[in-house]
Every structure is written in C-alpha cells, then in structure tokens.
Design a protein that fits this description.
The complex is a heterodimer of chains A (900) and B (123).
Chain A lengths: L3 H27 L7 H8 L5 H14 L5 H8 L1 H18 L4 H8 L4 H35 L8 H18 L11 H29 L2 H11 L3 H5 L9 H17 L1 H9 L6 H18 L1 H12 L9 H8 L3 H46 L4 H26 L6 H13 L2 H9 L5 H26 L7 H5 L7 E2 L2 E2 L7 H23 L4 H11 L9 H7 L3 H12 L1 H10 L12 H15 L1 H13 L5 H76 L8 H30 L6 E5 H18 L2 E5 L7 E5 H17 L8 E9 L3 E8 L34 H11 L3 E7 L3 E9 L4
Parallel strand pairs in A: 4-6
Antiparallel strand pairs in A: 1-2, 3-5, 6-7, 7-9, 8-9
Chain B lengths: L5 E5 L3 H13 L3 E5 L2 H11 L3 E5 L7 H10 L7 E6 L4 H9 L4 E4 L4 H12 L1
Parallel strand pairs in B: 1-2, 1-3, 3-4, 4-5
Classes of the chains: A mainly alpha (900), B alpha/beta (123).
Chain lengths: 900, 123
C-alpha cells in the first residue's frame, strides 16, 4: 500500500514530464524537428499497445492461453504489406489534406457531408467504450496501488482527474491551430516517450516476476506442468472457442484495426513526417511487439500459480506481483507503465475522434449558425469548437465507464470496439483499390454493418450489464425468432461472440457495399476522387513538380475538354496529336500542355489555366468555380459563335473580294490586252498605208506600174481601220449599255438573205459557197435590224476567215429549226474547226484562237463574236458553238419568234 | 556589178509584206517573204539572208523566239535582224536585243528610216 499523496505526486510529476516533452517537441518543431526519425514513427505506432496490452494480454493469456497473440499477429504478419499500403494512404492524406479517417472515407466517396457525419457518429460510438476501458485501467490500477487489495474496484475520482488533465493536455498540445496539415510534434514526442516507457516497465516487471519472484523460466514451467496448466495455455486450437476460425477472424480483425483505428490512422498517416519512415517502422514495430508479448505467457502462468485461487483479477497480475511482494517502487513504475500505455492511447484517440467530431459535425453546425450568433471572430470560434470537442469525447468515455463499462473485461470491450471500427474496412480498402466503389455502396454497407455490430455485439452487452432487461433475447432471439439470436445470428454457432459478430457484420457490410456500388451510378466527383485515391501511388514518382501532373488520366483531360469545347473539337485535337492514350493512362506533361492550349483556344488562356490547374492540383472544382467558369465559357462560346459567324461572313466576303479582284485583274489585263491589241491592230494598217502612200508620193515614177495595186491596198487597209474603230466603239457601247436600240418585227428569212448578199462578194472571191435552206417567209423576230444583221455578218465573216485551206471546196450552209417559241439559225462551215478547250473562250473579247492551219494570223479585231453574243443577249436569244477540229464549226443562234 | 543583198521579210500581215517587198525590190534588194515564223525559219536556212525584217507579234513562233532560233544557226550568224514592232515599250526592245536582234523599228515607220537602217547594216 502506497500513500495516496505519493501516487498523486508521482502521477502529477509524470504528467508534468509529458507536458515538458510536448512543449519541447513543439518548440523544436519550429527549428529542428525531434520527431523526424523513423524510430519515432515506429514507436508512435505502438500506441496500438494500450493498457489493454499492458494489463489485458496477461489476463487473456491466463484464461485463454496463447490466443491473446491473435490480436498482434494481424499487424505482425502483414508488416510486409505496410510499405505499399501505408505509403499510398500517406500520399492521399497529404495530397487531399485529410484530417481524420472519417474525412478520408468521406473524401474518397465524393466529399460527402452525410457520409462524413455517419462515419463520425459511428466511430464515436465505437471508440468511446474503448477510451473508457483505458480510463478504467487507470482508475483500477490507481485503486490497487492505494488500497493494495485484490479486487478491481473502479476509482471514479481518479479517472475524473485523469479526464480533466488529459483534456487540458490535449487542448494544449493536440489541437491543430488552423491548418490541418500542421503536425502535433510535441504530442508525437510524448507518444514515443510513452512507448518506450511502457515497454521498459513491462519488461521490468516481467524480469522481476520471472527471476525474482520465481527462479527463472524453468521454475515457472516446471510448476505449471505439475499443475497441468500448460496444455490449456499452449493448445492453439482450444485456446479459442471457435478454434482456427476464431484465430483467422482475430488475425484479420487485428490487421484491419491496426490501420483503421482513428489513432492508428492518425499516427500512421497524418503525423508521418516522411514516407520512408514506413520502411523502418515495418521492422521496428514487430520487434517492439515481440518485446512486449514475449513475457506474457510466463507472467500469466506465474500469476496463475502465484495467485491461484485468490480473487486477484488476472488482468492485474502485472501490478499485483510487485504489490503483493511488497515492491512498491516497482509497483509504481508498473503503474506508470500502464498509465503511459493508457494515456498514450487516450491522447491520440481523443485527438483523432475530437477532430472528426469538430470538423464533421460541430464546426459545420456552428458555421451554419454563425450569422445567428453574429460572431465576428470566426477563427476563434473554430478553435473553440475544436477544443470543446476534446472534453466531449473524454467525458463521454468517462460516463460510459461509470455506467456500463465497469463490469466488462478489458479485452471484450476492446474487441467490440475493434469490430465496430472494422466496419470501415470495406469502404476504406475498397476505396483504395476499387474504382467502381461509390457512395451509395459505402453508406449501405456501413449502415448494415453497424446494425449487425450493434445487434450481435453491443446489444448483448447492454442486456448483460442489466441496462436492458430482455435477457431471453440472448437465448430465444429477437421477438422469439431463433434466427435472430445475437450470439447465433441465422443459426451460426460455434464461433466466439467476437468472431461471430465480426463475421456477420463485416460480410454483410462488404456484400452491401459491393451490391450498392454496382447497382448505383456514381457522381462525377466520386469518380474523380476514386481515381485520385486509387492511382495515388503512380504520382510522387520522381520530383515534386512532376508529381503534380502524373496522376492526370487521359479520360479526365478528355472529359474536361469535351465539357468545355465539345466532342468534335476534342476529337479533332486528340487526333492531331501523335500521342495516343487509353482512358486510364496517365498523360504526360506535354500532353496536358497541349490540351490546355487547345482549351485556351476556346475559353481563353485564363480559364484554361484555371481548369487545367484544378485538374492538376487535384482540387475538385467548387460549385461556384465551376459555375463561374461555365458561365465564362458560355459567354466565350457565345462570342466565339458570333465570331465564327462573322468570320464565316468575312471569309465569304474575302472570297468574293478575291474573286472580284481576280475578275478585275482579268478585266484589267483584258483592258491592257485590248489597248495593246487595238494599238497593234491600228498600227498594222497604218504601217502599210504609210509605206505605200510614201512610196507613191516620193517616187511615183518608180512605182508607176504598181500604183493601182498600191492604192487598192491603201483603200482596203483604210476600210480595215474604220471597221476596227467601228467594232471597238460598238463593243464599248454594248458594254456600257448606252446603245440606241430600235426594235421592230422583222422577217428573219429576209434578214438572213440580206446578210448573205452582203458577204457574198468576199466569199465568192475566196471560192466559198454559201447555201441557204428554205424558211417560211412569215417567221418574224422582234429585233433591231442593223444589229441583228451585224450578228449574222460577223458569224459568216468568221466562217469565211477560218476556211480550211487543205480542203478542196469551202462550204457555208445555213439551216433552221423551228419550235413553237424559238427559231434556231444554224450556220455551219467545213473550216478548220475549234478545239474543244477553246470553244467557250471564243465569245470573250479579243480572243483569237491560233490555228496551225492558218498561214497568217486571223484578220479582225477579236471583237466579232463578243459583239454577237452581246447583241443576241439583248434580243433574248443566245449563241452556241459546236465544232470538231479540222472538220466543221456550227454556230447555233436561238431567237424567240415574234408571234403576231 | 555589186551582188544583190538578200532580205527576208517575215510578217503575218500581207499588206505590210506587200508594201515592204515593193519598197525593197525597188531599192535593189533580193527579197524573200514569209507570213509566219515557221515558214520563215525554213526559208532563212535556204535563203541565208543578209538581213531579216521580223514582225514580233506572230502566231506559233513570235519574233523573239524566231531570232533566238536564227542565232543558234551558225550559217546565219552574219544575218542582221531588224524587229518590226507594234509595241514601242522598253521591255520589248530589251527582249529583242537579248534574243540577238540588231535593231528595231516601231510600226508605223517611214520608208526613209527603214531604208537608212538597212543601208547601215548592209553597207
């Protein structure tokens, strides 16, 4: 028995030490971190070993043999998995700014508020009993020390003091100021210190028991075998109710909770300073477990031998040994070891749970009401919320301990909590590896898991603690339905209570999770988050810069691009790039830049930058941002569409301008040609006229014999000149449209005959025979006589000009076809013909088709057929040409008949 | 008696050919004529003229092409070429000189100028 003031003094001194360490750790965090070491990280993870380990494992071993190991085998066996799994989780947490495990899951499934609340409430319910057993351990051991009795009486006062002091400690060292990413270095330092402290205390008492109370291992095992206790302890299968199945269940269970317990998650993922610390922890942690469990069996056996039939609780053997043997110093040391194990757990668990409580429930609630309270200092309010949630957690645990938890063994309450926490497993691990997992699946899985957890595990404890009086439910089932027995759900018997509850809750949870996920369609943000979580390992490959980009998958860019610029443009852009990606391929930086460029073409640089950088930073677009960008885009698209239309119009205008310009250039060119041709045409007759007249004038005697021929040529050339001038003027007038027209009804037959008479002298001179078919005299056309005659003169002169000199007889034949409305006058010759490619051009101005057959150049202005075409247009008629080179040429003149 | 100097006239205008032939025959030159470049080239080879009066604007082979072809023929190296051009602009003249023509005369021209040019070349 130790005086109470001594123990209180020691406890206060110990707590003062913790405060000092925490203070030092926080101070150092600003300069040179003392916790940035793999060993510290590994030690912090040993908060897994709580007072439950410290005291309870010996208790469990003394009743159930080596089965106590099951809860350590899980984390131990799966150490190799840590490196991969932990690193992935750590990365996600850092990247997503995760503040707790509930935050982790809620973020994974689309940052859903309801999901966050649900998980928080569930964890609160799972963890409060667990914290309460730590409090109970403290108060019980405190009682043992001061009363030195074998009975385990809970000392509520000491627990209350602990609750108050812990609250104070956590508020001081455990509350993250504003940013969730700020680590609690002082707190981690304390945890590491306590980890060392508890293992030393445990080993100290073990050595004391084995070598001082007894005479070594040999002594203990010999005594045990004499009392036939070894078989029970060493029989692995018999040590648990359900045999190997229970072992399997417990191993799985412990592995899962090792990650999922809020405090474990907190230390493993959130307080991790460096990813590589995981590597070292994966071998340091097992060593620690080995050290702390190695002596459990010997102590348990020793306890059974030493305290055999007495009322000393096996849970407290570790403390009873030094107490009962009068070693008060060691007893105090052991008490502090247990105290360390308990407080370590309490501190981190409280931080973790209170963080999710404040972040997920209290702060949103208060922020909602902020307007109502008219609070001006929001950060202060938020800090207050964070602080108040700490005593809420601790006092809840205290209340639970006072009312329910006092009658239960540590291990059972702990395991019930474990099974509760494990309900997070499907959504947590599924969320890490299964992309199709979604919110609906998670919520349905969690709810069904929770219900079964409550029914198979928590509900019976209420009954057994007398809180609920329906004792018969345990035996006959709910409402008397035998399938609804809490300990034999659907008739499953043979497993122990924990394995049974674990089996049912987790398997139905997982089933609903899978079905729910498969049966529902996730929202965009869920898919986005899923990809971020699942592919988190692919990033952080090389340097930090690259990491930012590495997890952008092709489909993300693709969808983003479609969202902003549409399917077609996106496909076009993708087709243009030589790189080809599959949907889930991580795209290169160049490719992202490329898409950004494409986007910026449509929505402007700034918007494209925002959109892409959002994608890169993995910050989902907030609704407001999205709306804003979409609005901008809409506007931009509107403008763009307008611009597109305008630019199309402009393009059209430009096209027509180009065309007009081309035409103008052509016309200009034609004008140049016209002037050149005219000047050439004028110079030629003038040249001969001038030469010949000069000759006659200067030397009449010399050219006496030729004078007649000279004069004839001069006259001819003069005529040619005047014709040329006439043609040019006529053409110009037709172009300008200021010709004087005199339309009258004319007999076409007569008109043609007149024309033939006009050209006949020239034709006869060249031996050209002109034949005219019969045409009824009464066919009239409405025409300007002079001009229409010009049409036929020009056509006939054309035929005369292009006779084929290789042929023996030159023929021109005029034919007619009559229809109701039109007359077609066909002028056919057997001249040189016009090549197909030239046929269209002949009606243009100054076009004279060159032909090999002609010895000399064609005479004339090059205006004849152009004039013809223009005059006929005015008569509502038209002219066509049909010709085969070297064979014939047919001009078909169509004119409307004047019906009288 | 001096041997008659030979002049080839190539022009697609019969009236001009007629006038030139009359003028030059009267001035005691031996004349051959052609109405297009193709015939003119053949004629030049047989006739080996001392001077060629060459129209520029002719179908198939124009005056410039005609001169370059003449200048390729060593037999015709001595033949002087006077271009008869209806276009009086500079590019035409340069083009003519580049193709190996010796002189040009712009239509319409006086008989005196032509005769003195011919005299200058044929002495």
């Amino acid at each position: 028995m130790i005086p109470i003031w001594v123990i209180v003094l020691i406890c206060i001194t110990y707590l003062a030490l913790l405060f000092g360490i925490a203070f030092y750790g926080d101070k150092k965090a600003r300069t040179k971190s003392i916790i940035n070491r793999p060993i510290i990280y590994a030690l912090s993870l040993t908060t897994y070993c709580t007072a439950w380990t410290f005291y309870g494992s010996v208790g469990k071993a003394s009743t159930d043999g080596i089965s106590f190991l099951a809860t350590y085998l899980g984390p131990l066996l799966l150490c190799p998995l840590w490196i991969l799994l932990f690193k992935k989780i750590i990365r996600i947490c850092k990247k997503e700014n995760i503040s707790s495990i509930s935050d982790f899951i809620a973020t994974r499934y689309g940052k859903d508020k309801f999901l966050g609340n649900l998980i928080t409430v569930m964890i609160f319910l799972f963890i409060i009993p667990y914290i309460s057993i730590q409090l109970r351990a403290i108060s019980t051991t405190f009682n043992i020390l001061i009363k030195s009795t074998g009975t385990t009486v809970v000392n509520k006062e000491s627990a209350l003091v602990v609750v108050v002091l812990m609250s104070l400690f956590i508020i001081l060292f455990g509350v993250r100021k504003s940013n969730n990413n700020q680590r609690n270095e002082g707190m981690v330092a304390v945890i590491a210190f306590e980890a060392i402290f508890k293992v030393i205390a445990f080993i100290a008492v073990a050595i004391y028991v084995i070598f001082f109370v007894f005479d070594g291992f040999h002594d203990i095992f010999q005594l045990a075998s004499e009392k036939h206790m070894l078989t029970a302890i060493n029989d692995i299968k018999q040590s648990l109710e359900g045999g190997y199945w229970d072992w399997l269940m417990l191993i799985i269970l412990s592995f899962l909770v090792f990650i999922l317990l809020p405090r474990q998650f907190h230390l493993m993922a959130l307080e991790n300073k460096h990813e590589d610390h995981v590597n070292s922890a994966s071998w340091i942690f097992p060593l620690y477990l080995f050290a702390i469990t190695l002596f459990v069996i010997p102590i348990a056996i020793a306890g059974k031998i030493y305290f055999s039939e007495s009322a000393f609780s096996p849970d407290m053997y570790v403390l009873h040994f030094p107490m009962q043997t009068g070693n008060n110093l060691l007893a105090t040391f052991v008490f502090l070891g247990g105290f360390a194990a308990a407080t370590g757990m309490i501190i981190v668990e409280t931080i973790a749970v209170s963080t999710m409580l404040s972040n997920n429930i209290i702060i949103p609630l208060v922020v909602d009401k902020l307007k109502f309270f008219k609070t001006s200092n929001i950060p202060k309010t938020i800090t207050f919320c964070k602080r108040i949630s700490i005593p809420i957690v601790l006092f809840s645990a205290y209340i639970y301990m006072s009312i329910i938890g006092k009658d239960y063994p540590l291990v059972e309450i702990g395991l019930i909590s474990f099974v509760g926490i494990v309900q997070l497993a499907p959504s947590f691990f599924g969320g890490l590896f299964w992309k199709s997992a979604n919110k609906t699946g998670t919520i349905s899985g969690l709810i069904i898991g929770f219900i079964l957890w409550y029914f198979t595990l928590l509900y019976p404890t209420f009954i057994r603690s007398g809180l609920m009086s329906e004792m018969d439910v345990l035996d006959t089932g709910l409402y008397g339905i035998s399938a609804l027995k809490p300990y034999a759900f659907l008739g499953l018997e043979g497993l122990n209570k924990i394995s049974h509850g674990f089996f049912w809750s987790i398997s139905l949870n997982a089933l609903f999770y899978v079905i729910g996920s498969l049966a529902s369609i996730p929202k965009g943000i869920e898919i986005q988050q899923a990809n971020k979580f699942i592919d988190s390992l692919d990033e952080f490959d090389s340097n930090l810069f690259r990491n930012k980009y590495n997890n952008v998958q092709f489909y993300q860019l693709y969808e983003l691009s479609i969202k902003f610029i549409g399917l077609e443009a996106t496909n076009n852009a993708i087709r243009k790039n030589s790189k080809i990606y599959q949907n889930y391929d991580i795209v290169g930086i160049e490719y992202i830049d490329y898409i950004e460029n494409v986007l910026s073409d449509y929505i402007g640089n700034i918007s494209a930058r925002i959109v892409i950088s959002k994608l890169l930073n993995e910050e989902p677009l907030s609704r407001n941002e999205l709306v804003k960008i979409l609005e901008e885009t809409k506007e931009a698209i509107g403008h763009r569409k307008l611009l597109e239309i305008k630019s199309l119009e402009l393009e059209e205008i430009q096209k027509s301008l180009l065309l007009t310009n081309k035409k103008l250039k052509e016309i200009d060119h034609l004008k140049d040609e016209f002037i050149l041709t005219i000047s050439h045409e004028l110079r030629t007759p003038i040249t001969s006229i001038r030469l010949l007249s000069e000759m006659l004038y200067k030397d009449a005697e010399q050219y006496k014999n030729q004078s007649e021929e000279f004069l004839k040529t001069i006259v001819q050339e003069s005529e040619r000149l005047s014709n040329l001038i006439d043609d040019t003027l006529l053409h110009e007038q037709l172009e300008l449209g200021n010709l004087n027209w005199q339309f009258e009804g004319y007999n076409i037959s007569k008109l043609i005959k007149n024309t033939i008479e006009t050209v006949k002298p020239i034709a006869e001179k060249l031996n050209i025979k002109i034949t005219n078919s019969y045409l009824n005299n009464n066919v009239e056309v409405y025409a300007d006589k002079t001009h229409l005659e010009r049409v036929f003169i020009n056509i006939l002169m054309n035929a005369i000009k292009f006779i084929d000199p290789t042929k023996n007889n030159y023929l021109i034949n005029i034919n007619y076809t009559l229809s109701k409305e039109n007359i077609v006058i066909i002028v056919e010759d057997n001249g040189i013909g016009i090549a197909k490619q030239h046929q269209k051009k002949i009606f243009n101005t100054f076009v004279q088709i060159q032909n090999e057959m002609l010895k000399t150049k064609p005479k004339g202005s090059g205006l004849g057929l152009s004039i013809v075409s223009k005059i006929l247009q005015r008569h509502k008629g038209e002219i066509k040409v049909e010709s085969v080179l070297n064979k014939y040429t047919k001009f078909l003149v169509t004119l409307p008949i004047n019906i009288t | 008696m001096e041997t008659q100097k030979k002049i080839l006239i190539v022009d697609d205008e019969p009236s001009i050919v007629f006038a030139l032939e009359s003028l030059l025959s009267a001035n005691n030159y031996k004349i051959e004529k052609s109405y297009n470049g193709k015939d003119g080239l053949k004629m030049a080879k047989n006739f080996t003229p001392d001077l060629i009066l060459l129209d520029v604007m002719m179908p198939f082979i124009d005056g410039f092409e005609f001169s370059s072809l003449i200048r390729k023929d060593k037999k015709l190296a001595h033949s002087k070429i006077i271009l008869l051009t209806a276009k009086g602009n500079i590019t035409d003249k340069n083009a003519g000189y580049n193709k190996g023509c010796d002189d040009y005369i712009v239509k319409p021209f006086s008989s005196e100028v032509l005769l003195s040019k011919i005299k200058y070349f044929l002495g």
